[in-house]
Amino acid sequence: MSVAGEQNQRGGINVARLLMSFGPLLFLAALIVVFTVLKPSFMDPINLFNITRQISITGLIALGMTFVILTAGIDLSVGSLLAFCGMVAAVVAKGGTANTLSLSTSGTQGYGWFAALLAAVVVGAAAGGVQGLAITRLKVPPFVVTLGGLTVFRGLTLTISNGGPISGFDASMRWFGTGLIGPVPVPAIIFAVAAILCHIVLRYTRYGRAVYAVGGNAEAARLSGLRVDRILVSVYVIVGFFAGLAAFVLSARLNSSEAVAGIGYELTVISAVVIGGTSLFGGIGSVGGTVVGAALIGVLQNGLQFNNVSSYTQSIVIGLILILAVAFDRWLKSRVRR
Amino acid sequence: MSVAGEQNQRGGINVARLLMSFGPLLFLAALIVVFTVLKPSFMDPINLFNITRQISITGLIALGMTFVILTAGIDLSVGSLLAFCGMVAAVVAKGGTANTLSLSTSGTQGYGWFAALLAAVVVGAAAGGVQGLAITRLKVPPFVVTLGGLTVFRGLTLTISNGGPISGFDASMRWFGTGLIGPVPVPAIIFAVAAILCHIVLRYTRYGRAVYAVGGNAEAARLSGLRVDRILVSVYVIVGFFAGLAAFVLSARLNSSEAVAGIGYELTVISAVVIGGTSLFGGIGSVGGTVVGAALIGVLQNGLQFNNVSSYTQSIVIGLILILAVAFDRWLKSRVRR
Amino acid sequence: MPTAEAASPEPILLAVEGVTKHFAGVTALSDVSLDIRPGEILGLLGENGAGKSTLLKILSGVMPPSSGRIIFDGADYQPASPQDAKRLGIVTIYQELSLIPTLTVAENIFIGRAPTGPLGLVSWRRMEEDSRAIIARVGLTIDPMTPVSALSVAEQQLVEIARALSLKSRLIIMDEPTSALTETEVQRLLSIMDRLRRDKVAIMFVTHRLEEAAAICDRMTVLRDGRLAGHLDRDNGPIELPAIIEKMVGRAASELYARPAQRAIAGDIRLSVRGLRTVRDPEAPHAIVLDGVDIDLKAGEILGVAGLVGSGRTELARAIFGADRIAAGTITLDGRQIAPASPADAIALGIGLVPEDRKHQAIFAALGILPNFSVASLGHFSNGFGFMAERRERDALAGFRKMLSIRMASAEQAIEGLSGGNQQKVILARWLARDPKVLIVDEPTRGVDVGAKTEVHQILVQLAARGIAVMMISSELPEVLAVSDRIVTMRRGRITGQMQGVEANEEKLMELMALDRQDAKGQAR
Amino acid sequence: AEDKLTILGSVPNLGFPFFVHMLNEIKAEAAAQGVNLTESDGQNSATKQTADIEAALVQKVNAIVISPLDVNALAPAIEEAVKAGVPVVTIDRRVDGVEGILAHVGADNVKGGEAEASAMVAAFPNGAKIFHLQGQPGAGPAIDRNKGVHNVLDPLKDKYQIIFEQTANFARAEALSVTEAGLAANGKPDAIVCANDDMALGAMEACAARNFTDVKIYGFDALPEALVAVRDGKLAGTVEQFPGEQSRTAVRIAVAYAKDKTEPKEKLVLLTPIVIGKDNLDKAERIGETK
Ligand SMILES: Nc1ncnc2c1ncn2[C@@H]1O[C@H](COP(=O)(O)OP(=O)(O)OP(=O)(O)O)[C@@H](O)[C@H]1O
Ligand SMILES: Nc1ncnc2c1ncn2[C@@H]1O[C@H](COP(=O)(O)OP(=O)(O)OP(=O)(O)O)[C@@H](O)[C@H]1O
Ligand SMILES: [Mg+2]
Ligand SMILES: [Mg+2]
Fold first, then answer.
1. Domain architecture of chain A: domains with CATH
2. Could you give the CA distance from residue C234 to residue B279 in angstroms, rounded to a whole number?
3. Tens of pLDDT along A239-270?
4. Average pLDDT in chain D
5. What is the CATH number of the domain that holds C482?
6. What is the count of structural domains for chain C?
7. Which protein residue has the closest C-alpha to ligand 1 atom 6?
8. In what order do the strands lie in the sheet with C227-233?
9. pLDDT exceeding 70 applies to what percent of chain C?
10. Which ipTM was obtained for this model?
11. A interface test, pick of C111, C156, C359 with most A CB neighbours within 10 Å
């Protein structure tokens, strides 16, 4: 290979790299332009902050899901786990299942927001860990284990709440859902900080690189001396942790934990990750992509609602645009490689 | 390798084979024994036929899904496609969207059951084909294409039905859902015949061989002269066809096509396939396994309901048993391999 | 530390005592014992399926033995995972490459031990620089930030070797590290091994190229059918190839490369390629691009294609086979111009290709031997209604099993469970079953043992004798010299020379393979 | 001792508090009547509810009390029960076209939607700008309630404009997001009409966040949580359909018939849905649960 060839190749790769990460981003930008043209008030800061707040819940889970999918795994239980952790947080925050309905709490009987947050993330991480162990020890595929988890956690949630919601948290807890720091909603800040941390972990730590390695080829990773099983368990702990964190934020935002929360979230979350360019076969992907994927879905939903598009048409448009966004990304990549 | 060794290995493999295909079956048998002991009337022929009728809808789709998963693909759109095809069948059967609610039709304005059936399966197969083309031509992963399909087909269904159901078919059409041949429900017979045909196709035809090859190693399949893209498209056509057939049977059984039909079916259907031992990574699996998987889920639901287990507990038990059934299967296989 | 043997200056580093390993009914190893000392290169030889890789996998902690004992450095050694082996300084180069395709070369080299900077964060810059130096040791000049999936098999092999060499090791286990390499790289590796020997590293070396083994090994241990067939020691004079072969196969050695003297081929031109150019494939951006290749292939001849790694031989084969897109040029088969747009087209026209990367491009690992065998001839083995004619299929497989002496338990057995050489024979059988007009074989004996290699050569010769035009790409010059009627050499996507087989020798070929034709310079892309 | 009677109590979806309450009331009344109860949760699937009925028929239950998920799709299963001689009483949603149903006890969702919209109209005699949050597309109650709302508002289009109409799938979190988008796009409305209480509570949070405390928000179902919000003046009203009363009446009718073939006095018991506001909180069935 000649020197000229090499340089060219390198240059090619850099441009490719740039555009590859920009594929979904370009698409997102195009969407924003379209919606702004349709209705300029789409760009109103209030609306933009609404969108950031809205994507923060599924976005947080999508961060954890990125780890899981990078290992070629999947977690279908996140929606149910979110409901479960939210219910646990509510029980802790209210000091029991009694008095579940008062919308304004004096905050005297409960254990406070910190205990609630802790309970949510610990339960989430533990539940994820149990699923991870089932995957690695019992050798049951992640799809099956977490599909089981999906129904088990929903059943547990309904059992502890007896079907009803638990509502009414104190102001300090509610701040995590509804508060602002300057003009920025607190959930959006939590999401941003979490995304940056996840990016650093995946890109700049040995652990993160090991996650990619396991997803790239688990057998080769094992032969290279990585503790594959531990890494697999850890990613389910991480996604469980984020489901717990998202549950806490959602409960704080709604001032209520509901047994029916999070139904169908697994598909939204996985979409965000996949649209962001992470391969379901593992080893390829990034946190940045996931954030863009989550934003794309959020902007699409908000923009269509903003224009009061009928819900039937919304379904059709959202489905087509998801496919188009990914098709565009593939097309761009194949062009750039030439 | 000594001659003794060879013989030994042969023996080993045969026992392994037997037990491998019997893993989920053993588990199913155990479940049936447990439920019969708990409540002997579980074995009442009427109940057993009820179960066969109940599993026939998702079972039919699971047959098609087996083809898809054997190629390492997935189809999340089946639930929505079922609703869509059901609505199309209803429109054809009733000769339009007018007069949608009369439960008893004179049958004069419609085009009859055959046209309805034909419309359902043709539309299903065509929709599957379009998705298959998006997968092979646009190079968008099956997960994304069919996730898009999931929302698109639901939106289309709602659009043609304007949200409401279309009800009331003539007796000849209803026979496919509620009729009996001897003591056996017609849907169960349709399912059984379809399962046998699928088994023959996958096991004894060159097309079936090609499906396994494409799933086992797509690149090697291409270099062996298989038209990989065509085969990929074909499996989505097949699953679409079965979604259409299932839709027809379901509409006939309920005497109604609903816009909300089939929500969440994708997970039930994929569970049946995976519990039956088909690998989500392609190349491994069988129709027999899928039938057992579908039966296992059906028996579990019926048995728990039969014993008046509370609905919340049902969720928990079903989730755990799904995981256990697959874990048992893996354990058995690993034992046999030693 | 107590010494095991008085005569030896070095204590035994690793001793295997009576190790046995069973798989689902197969006994892969039976009561095998051997030992190795620091600063020693031990050759581990045997036919395909003799149990070499199995033994090495046990040593590197991939799987436990069924029974027997291993002693490392004087202590009982029972690794539970490759990690345990690594910690003790036992480093392995696996036969089936163990790189992670989605990661870059640099990351693969530093897997699990990436250099970190402040805050314990991975330093990508240092990783790139250090890995550039590490791969340079084995003569690789690719960009370390290239993903491994874009490398050829040979390059991957070199990366894997480079990685192993960069680890602190006391014992290096090499399972066929040279199978994908050409002479130059092999020589470089052998000299590196020699240096390691002087640094008192112990090396266990598996190869099917006996010349290499004879050149570098201090001692050899030979396995046959999972049992110890004997030890050979250089101290008692140089190790002769026939002696090794006799131990391996259990009978007196037949002639290596048993090609009858090259016949003058007078067949018609069957395949003719003119001005063939390929485009850069977006899926494989680093692949060599063919730059105007002219080549003729006559019925009944074996055309050897020689070249260094990256010379474009594989690309030529793929282009003819319709697997890659062609930018310009014509291909003529039996006087008719053809333009295969896919392998399916090429196959229908009577062209076959045995690809170089068996694992990724040829075998269906989880499927049985029968479907692996018949996948390219489904039409042939099925009736008009599309149903498989299994009886015929099985009979055909049984015939090839005998002809190629494939060691297998049953037609249902997963091909994964076969040794590499036997897998290769099944792939050959896949194409023989089609009875092609033109058969292109890319590294046909990669990982195939001497006995089977001779068989493969004989098969190729027989095919040619039947009038089939055979194009054989091989990185093993002795092999090219032994079977080819005519030989062409390639470099950078161009043909650099050709000669009759009888006129050729290694020196001449090496010279042509390294030759940059004047007009090839400066327009390599 | 004589065998106790067994009845099947089936509701469409125990994921929703409304139906949990319904089943609880069925349970309580069954206990009071001294009969065994087999519970069934349709899990939002017509096939599941059908399967439950089929299983119950095999077990030879003496009567069936059911709130069908979908009036058309459940008709064949109910027909089968009638044919098997098992008395069926339907609650809440009425199955047309099946002969021989013992009785129906219900409050029409269309009527409820009409009541909800009428209450809103009454609150804004001079007209209003309205957001309308609809239920899950295709679901029976969503269709009926939507119909009721439009029955009232469509003729008054000039004064009462629905400027924003979206589904929030009966879910609180979605209602919150959708309302946020609606507020950003259209500014403050005068009223928000929602197809259930969960969505009303979600819309309430969205308005609270923007400090739009004077938007009148209407819910549906009169869940305790909504009643609290009505009491506190955060919701303007919610529609009460008396599900508990419906359930208990249905069980009484079914058990009476199963015991000694007592025909019900009326085959059709229709409770008129009312809108609960701050002033008539005491009329709410579940007001006791808000203490
Ligand atoms: N995972 C496995 N399951 C079953 N049988 C196996 C497995 N691995 C190896 N074997 C069998 O064990 C025997 C020894 O195989 P091994 O791979 O050690 O041979 P080898 O000497 O390395 O051959 P080669 O030179 O072809 O690489 C073979 O008969 C093979 O079929
Ligand atoms: N499938 C592939 N994907 C991406 N790159 C490839 C692929 N195959 C080959 N290459 C690239 O093409 C170049 C030449 O390939 P290769 O080494 O196979 O050539 P060759 O002449 O066939 O040599 P050899 O036969 O020794 O492997 C290498 O630099 C490699 O990076
Ligand atoms: Mg080997
Ligand atoms: Mg090559």
1. 2-337 (1.10.3470)
2. 51
3. 999 999 999 999 999 999 999 899 989 999 99
4. 92
5. 3.40.50.300
6. 1
7. C417
8. C90-93, C171-175, C202-206, C41-46, C219-224, C227-233
9. 91
10. 0.87
11. C111
